[in-house]
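Consider the following input, taken from an annotated entry for EML-like second beta-propeller domain-containing protein (Phrynosoma platyrhinos).
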Amino acid sequence: MFLPVARYSTADLLVSPSAIINIVSKEGGAVKLWDQELRRCRAFRLETGQTIDCVRSVCRGKVNVSTGSYKRQVYEVPSGKQLLDQTVIDRITWATWTSVLGDEVIGIWSRHAEKADVNCACVSHSGISLVTGDDFGMVKLFDFPCPEKFAKHKRFFGHSAHVTNIRFTSGDRYVVSAGGDDSR
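Applying the prediction step yields:
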């Protein structure tokens, strides 16, 4: 896959069944939306101008982003207008989910966890499992959604430091994780 070069660094990239979302700059909320054929569809700026950590999920006409201040926000595409009506947000069925924020994933947080302790999450393509990676080198497997605090999970060790990213393979048979200081 090749995306034309932007003037700013790419902060995140998300592929969904209907589009490719490319965050071209963390500063100011600049977003480019590409169709699956990689023709530039639309570019827009999120109306709040928030610093974007990453696009966490997408469905037709909506993006779910996590900001640098640990806030989950939903925007309309391509207008960039923020959705504030929680009943509308609650009815969205997301095509993908990689957010550590939201009512659907409250259970991933342990009793003594701080906001920065859980680094990454991914819901399986089947939508029934959620896997997370944290600062302690652990990969955890949950049922999805997990809206109750301190949800039951399975823990897996193998990273020497924090887990920086995690994904299910296309058939949900395997989980691939990347860690911070795994070279030692």
